[in-house]
Recover the amino acids of this structure.
């Protein structure tokens, strides 16, 4: 006795084959959809009444708000914020009453900007609206007021360049450098 290789009704086999091919083609077509991105560019150099201004972007959040450093030909560096609608604003920190170089480094989705004032190795700070808050880290009994914050997430956790993590309650943890790209 022989075993049949195809069903006894060829039309059922053909329908099944056609259905399988259609499903396979539909899944391939679905897998080929491309993600799309929109890129916005803006001028990094402009002329002002006092000379030339150069913008150096350093961070962007999920709302396309860009922060960075604006260097003017007068020598003072200021933090800048470029809003998603194209508006541009500048900020100069005055921690001791007089203007100092201000470097914006990153901004989270809650609108908190982090940076350094005074010099690249100056006073780390957070800025929410117009509220300037110097940042410090207390390790044991020693308080550190000089470090280089690099990123802030939506929960307010700040990571510095040496791998320390700062949170709102100023606790910290040292992360292995292998965790950073």
């Amino acid at each position: 006795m022989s075993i049949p290789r195809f069903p006894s009704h060829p039309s059922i086999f053909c329908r099944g084959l056609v259905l399988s091919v259609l499903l396979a083609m539909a899944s391939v077509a679905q897998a080929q959809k491309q993600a799309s991105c929109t890129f916005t560019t803006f001028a990094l150099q402009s002329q002002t009444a006092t000379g030339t201004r150069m913008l150096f972007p350093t961070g962007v959040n999920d709302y396309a708000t860009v922060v960075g450093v604006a260097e003017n030909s007068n020598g003072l560096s200021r933090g800048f914020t470029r809003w998603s609608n194209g508006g541009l604003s500048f900020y100069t920190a005055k921690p001791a009453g007089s203007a100092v170089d201000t470097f914006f480094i990153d901004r989270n989705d809650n609108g908190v900007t982090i940076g350094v004032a005074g010099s690249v190795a100056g006073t780390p700070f957070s800025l929410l609206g117009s509220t300037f808050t110097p940042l410090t880290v207390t390790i044991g009994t020693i308080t550190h007021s000089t470090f280089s914050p690099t990123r802030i997430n939506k929960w307010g956790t700040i990571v510095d360049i040496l791998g320390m993590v700062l949170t709102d309650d100023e606790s910290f943890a040292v992360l292995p450098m292998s965790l950073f790209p």
Q: What stands out?
A: The chain has one helix and 15 strands. The mean pLDDT is 76. Residues 102 and 117 are 5 Å apart (CA to CA).
